[in-house]
Design brief:
The complex is a heterodimer. By secondary structure, chain A is mainly α. Chain A has a domain at about 75-245: MetI-like fold. Chain A is about 70% helix and about 0% strand. Chain A is built from 14 helices and no strands. In chain A, helix 7 (about 160-170) runs antiparallel to helix 10 (about 200-220), helix 10 runs antiparallel to helix 13 and helix 12 (about 235-245) packs antiparallel against helix 13. By secondary structure, chain B is mainly α. Chain B has a two-stranded antiparallel ribbon with strand order 1-2. In chain B, a hairpin with a 6-residue loop joins strand 1 and strand 2. Chain B starts with a helix and ends in a 6-residue tail after the last helix. The relative contact order of chain B is 0.12. The model of chain B has no long low-confidence stretch (mean pLDDT about 90). Classes of the chains: A mainly alpha, B mainly alpha. Chains A and B meet through helix 1, helix 3, helix 4, helix 5 and helix 8 of A and helix 2, helix 4, helix 5, helix 6 and helix 9 of B. Chain A: InterPro entries: MetI-like, MetI-like_sf. Chain A: This is Carbohydrate ABC transporter permease. Chain A: Belongs to the binding-protein-dependent transport system permease family. Chain A: Keywords: Cell membrane, Membrane, Transmembrane, Transmembrane helix, Transport.
Chain lengths: ~290, ~300
């Protein structure tokens, strides 16, 4: 990068500069990672009440007793993980399918009302979610009467405007000539979507899938509002219940937090590229 | 020729409209049901005293009671304080980190970006549980141990109204700035090399290049992050809800949390809807002002 004068100055000065930079970056990394390190490390402690222990930032014991303690809290604790998995997976799949379809239509097909409809959709991104929260709750609980079901957890996020926007942005860059020549050869729109658009949009579809899955695995308030029995709760709601029922059990709480976070860590490290790419797909105008 | 070409095009595009409507049908239904309807409904409910069976209109009572209540003003003030303390710091931190990352090798850049992003993949509930223990008010609490080394006495971090807001702010400073860092790095890579070359011919120093090239070139990115950051911050309430519940003495009650409590603790849906619409209006005004005053010479 030419912002830094790499060819100017002597080698020692450059070396010193880079060392200072790396040290600063590492310090910031340390501060950022500390809560996660503290969480995982402490989760291997014994499930005793907090008064009896003093926290250490160095690893001491290594036992899985606190994990057992967490799972013993409720007979549904495994079910929480399963519920989170079911909800996040269904929402992920439906978002990828429907947002891809809608993104293609808005990005590449000329139809009446396209601009107006898309503007109406985008306007939704400006509205704080507090506005829709109460009426949505009334709709699901009082009108549809589907509280405490998978439908209640899944339906409102079936396809999000953000994902449609992401898909449209990405697909706008696909050259029209490809689509036109496919049409000349008599391909239907459905065929164009599945045989041309989708293979070319693998990246954005993967980004959507991952970010949507993560968001729905981590979401707390909606499941908290619309579930009222332990068997329908997700891991985040379960963790919150556990916390309030066992306010003094330090290590088991950390074990619970670790359990809720580890699946996302694994996903992140195996698909890191898509996570990091996903951030810029929607944000930076090329 | 032209006419024939457009004729062919028309023939080829025949029936596309139907396909397009088919492709967006489900998205539109979901949008109508779970976004458009709730917004309109919020507007109606805000003028009602909501009851599950038969609500009654009560004019502007909900709005009037909000402007009369001190709590709403306090919540607004808290939200403002939180925003002013968190958003600019987040911007400066991520800008600084992005600049420092630039001279590193590609693999080191990726590693640092991944590290800074990592906390964002952990759930808010999990992180709030961890921070709750970091803020343990006992002398053995992690943060109290740390400030003890500096000779500062024990603090009741979340339990005292003088430190509770700062505790939430500190948590935000040390949580993930990964998204903004990545966006800044991408924008930095997008700056045309020739600017730097021209500047170097003129003998510009690092700081001069920073001031005359980098900062102006990154203005659209900064504006984007500022606006989204402020909008996000005005809606924030998960950490306050999970860690302090808005207390003590409402010192951490933000507007988002107040709306939540009004709706789901006191079940005053009408009032909550009115509060949420006022919040939406405030956010709209702030976003508008930011674009108006900072976006003058920004091109999109």
């Amino acid at each position: 990068m030419a912002l830094f004068n790499n060819h100017l100055g002597n080698r020692a000065a450059r070396y010193t500069r880079n060392t200072i930079i790396v040290v600063l970056l590492l310090l910031f990394a340390l501060a950022t990672l500390f809560p996660i390190y503290f969480m995982v490390m402490s989760s291997f402690g014994d499930p005793v009440e907090a008064g009896a222990i003093s926290y250490s930032i160095w690893p001491g014991k290594f036992s899985f007793e606190s994990y057992k303690f967490f799972f013993k809290f409720s007979e549904y604790s495994y079910r929480w993980l399963l519920n989170s998995l079911i909800v996040a997976t269904v929402v992920m799949v439906s978002n990828v399918i429907f947002a891809t379809m809608a993104g293609y239509a808005f990005g590449k097909i000329n139809f009446k009302g396209r601009k107006v409809l898309f503007a109406v959709l985008l306007a939704a991104m400006m509205i704080p979610y507090q506005v829709t929260q109460v009426p949505l709750y009334i709709l699901i609980v009082n009108i549809f009467e589907i509280q405490n079901t998978y439908q209640a957890l899944i339906l409102p996020s079936l396809v999000t405007v953000y994902n449609i926007f992401l898909a449209k942005q990405f697909m706008s860059s696909i050259p029209n000539e490809i689509l036109e020549s496919a049409k000349v050869e008599g391909a239907s729109q459905f065929k164009i979507l599945t045989k041309i658009i989708m293979p070319l949009s693998k990246t954005v579809m993967a980004v959507m899938a991952i970010l949507t899955f993560m968001e729905n695995w981590n979401t707390f308030f909606w499941p908290f509002l619309v579930t009222n029995t332990m068997d329908m709760q997700t891991i985040q709601v379960g963790l919150k219940n556990f916390r309030f029922a066992n306010t003094t059990y330090f290590a088991p709480m950390m074990a619970g937090a670790t359990i809720s976070a580890v699946p996302m860590f694994i996903l992140f490290f195996s698909l890191q590229r898509y996570f990091l790419e996903g951030v810029t797909v929607g944000a930076v105008k090329g | 020729m032209m006419a024939r070409a457009s004729n062919i095009k028309n023939r080829l595009n025949k029936g596309d409209g139907a396909w397009a409507y088919g492709f967006i049908a489900i998205a539109l239904v979901v949008y109508a049901l779970f976004t458009a309807y709730p917004v309109i409904s919020a507007l109606l409910i805000s003028f009602q005293e909501y009851r599950p069976l038969g609500s009654s209109f009560n004019g502007i009572d909900n709005y009037a009671s909000i402007f009369k209540s001190e709590l709403f003003g306090k919540a607004l003030w808290n939200t403002l304080v939180y925003t002013v303390l968190t958003v600019p710091v987040a911007l400066i931190l991520s800008f600084g980190v992005a600049i420092m990352i630039m001279p590193l090798k590609k693999w080191a850049q990726t590693t640092f970006k991944a590290i800074y992003y990592l906390p964002a993949v952990a759930s808010g509930v999990a992180l709030s549980v961890v921070w709750l223990w970091i803020y343990d008010p006992m002398p053995g609490g992690i943060l109290n141990q740390l400030i003890g080394l500096l000779g500062i006495e024990n603090q009741n971090w979340l339990g005292s109204s003088s430190t509770s807001m700062f505790s939430l702010v500190l948590m935000s400073w040390l949580s993930s700035h990964g998204t903004s860092i990545i966006i800044y790095v991408a924008a930095l890579l997008g700056i045309d090399e020739s600017y730097y070359e021209a500047a170097e011919i003129d003998g510009a120093t690092f700081w001069q290049k920073m001031w005359h090239i980098v900062i102006p070139c990154l203005k659209p990115t900064t504006l984007f992050l500022l606006v989204t950051g402020v909008i996000g911050s005005f809606q924030v309430f998960q950490n306050a809800y999970l860690m302090t519940g808005g207390g003590p003495d409402h010192s951490t009650t933000m507007v988002g949390l107040l709306i939540f409590d009004t709706a789901f603790k006191y079940f005053e849906f009408g009032k909550a809807a009115a509060q949420s619409l006022i919040l939406a209006l405030i956010i709209g005004i702030i976003a508008f002002i930011q674009f108006k005053f900072l976006g003058k010479d920004v091109e999109y």
